[in-house]
Amino acid sequence: MKLYKDYAVNTFEIIIIGAGPAGLQLSYFLKQANISHIVLERADCAGSFFTTYPPHKKLISINKVNTGFDDDDKNLRWDWNSLLSKGHNLLLKQFDQSYYPNSDNLVAYLNQFAQQHQLPVLYQCAVSMVERHQEQFLVTTAQQEQYCARLVVDATGTGKANVPDIEGIEHAHAYAEMSNDVSAFKNKRVLILGKGNSAFETADSLLQSAANIHLISPNDFNFAWVTHYPGHLRSVNQGFLDTFFLKQQNAILNGKVKWIRVNDKGTLDVEMMFSEDNDIEVNQYDAVVNCTGFSCELSYYDKAITPNRCLHGKFPELTENWESTNVPGLYFAGTNMQYNDYKKSSTPFIHGIRHNVEALSQILISKLRNTPLPSSKISAQQLYSSVCERIRKSASVWFLFGNMYDVYQNTDDGAYQCFKDIPRLVFERGEQFNQFSGYILMFSYAIPQDENERKKFSQHGFLHPVVRQYAQGEIVAERHMLEDIYSEWENLERLDNGIRAMLS
Ligand SMILES: Cc1cc2nc3c(=O)[nH]c(=O)nc-3n(C[C@H](O)[C@H](O)[C@H](O)COP(=O)(O)OP(=O)(O)OC[C@H]3O[C@@H](n4cnc5c(N)ncnc54)[C@H](O)[C@@H]3O)c2cc1C
User: Fold this and answer.
1) Angle made by CA atoms 259, 263, 264, in degrees to the nearest 5
2) 370-422, pLDDT tens digit by residue?
3) What is the third-level CATH fold of 7-158+295-369?
4) Would the CB of 334 count as within 6 Å of ligand 1?
């Protein structure tokens, strides 16, 4: 291993790689806790992912400016883009008032966040190698600068566009090349590979220009309003569906593309095999656009510490603490945290990332300072009001439904030790909650098992609070608060459904 200079001067407790929303959010919390750290970012600004994506510039994360409430904590439930900070004095709505904001404004916001909080970000520092050097990680940048730390947090996102293994894929346009100027597609036949939000967003933008638009991928798509996963097809991108179901010359196909070849007319022949009956057809298109998703990069790790991957190599494989399963001391933050609750809640989006990253910061601080996870003690009399306060306001247990808990642990003197924002897997696997007695609060879409209780809930289930009681590690009772059609959770007396009695 070659050391380019005396790396002792560049030694930190933590190195964060990447200054996207996750890297910035983590740096904010580490700075608050006086943890020495640095953020290495390859681009010349923070949030650079959003300078390219989405190419049509319209974010699918909600920015609800008018909520009728002036409580900053509560308002975070309807603000999917702002990062967490004390006093919430820097919010995306100061940069953009649209319900679906413009991605350039998000970039401006993220850079202001980094600047205002004086986060230690070094721009134009692309990490080219991460190695182990004794008990430390040694991180080298493309400029041959070297940095050393006990822990590394990789917050480099999933910005690597997938290129499917299809003969002739080089003839396809990349999703990143698309823009709101669709004049080049006037009167053309266009095939879009993929059926996620990027494919539908691209199809929507082409409606005004193309003659035919076909979408193809092997399987059907899921609606976010059915699965509650914000990465599934969002209604903001569903304009194209109308044109398919109302027979406006567009199609949605289930099948695999085998090859793409340039024909004698200079257009493209595309062979596709349909999923339903394995039928093979060759269709002609003027253009093909590749919208088949993204994965993590992680090409800069030394062979000896290459992190294990999962889910077809798309994401790093993680422990309950978001630590690599095979590289101790290497953690992941941001969209790369999603292995632990894949497609189950809001983890890959900023409104999930910010709360997961706050929880990660507590885990890291507790490891570095050898302290327990933060908690506060409350009396048995305070338990119900404490739970109600969180039901009314908390954005973390709300967005990370089923995967983020508030934990109220019995103490010997009949009081409770209250831990906010404990990831489900930390609760289930962590030693601290072994043989747990007490209560947890979470939000859930799942309606109760009990026949009589089920009747009180809507058939599909709306997001609602659930309190579970544990004794010696076993679940002994569970109550679901009734659904609030306004999702405001103000009048809890009316919705209580036995929670007060359970906690008293
Ligand atoms: C097409 C698309 C649209 C999306 N739209 C939304 C949306 O509207 N709202 C939303 O909340 N989420 C959206 N997402 C999810 C989005 O990716 C995440 O919310 C967000 O970008 C994740 O933040 P992050 O910090 O984990 O990663 P990123 O934002 O990707 O940040 C990673 C950072 O790491 C840097 N980096 C990478 N490699 C290196 C290296 N070797 N050395 C140094 N720095 C490096 C990058 O330059 C980048 O700045 C979208 C995703 C896709 C694919």
Assistant:
1) 165
2) 999 999 999 999 999 999 999 999 999 999 999 999 999 999 999 999 999 99
3) FAD/NAD(P)-binding domain (3.50.50)
4) yes
- Rg (the chain; Cα; Å): 25
- With CA atoms as reference, report the closest residue to 22 among 293, 338, 328: 338
Rounded CA-CA distance 146/464 in Å is 49
pLDDT score at 345: 87
C-alpha 349 – ligand 1 centre gap (Å) = 9
Residue ranges covered by each domain of the chain: 7-158+295-369, 169-292, 377-503
User: Which residue out of 59, 111, 156, 204 has the highest number of ligand 1 atoms within 8 Å of its CB and is therefore the one to mutate?
Assistant: 156
pLDDT at 3: 46
Q: What is the per-residue pLDDT for 4?
A: 45
From CA 369, how far away is CA 33, in angstroms rounded?
A: 10
Relative to the CA of 201, which ligand 1 atom is closest? 1
The CATH number of 169-292, from 1.20.272.10, 3.30.70.270, 1.10.8.280, 3.50.50.60, is: 3.50.50.60
Alpha carbon 179 to its chain centroid, in Å, reads: 24
At 460 the pLDDT is 78
User: Torsion angle of alpha carbons 390, 346, 443, 393, nearest 10°?
Assistant: 20
Half-sphere exposure of 407 (CA within 13 A, CB side): 25
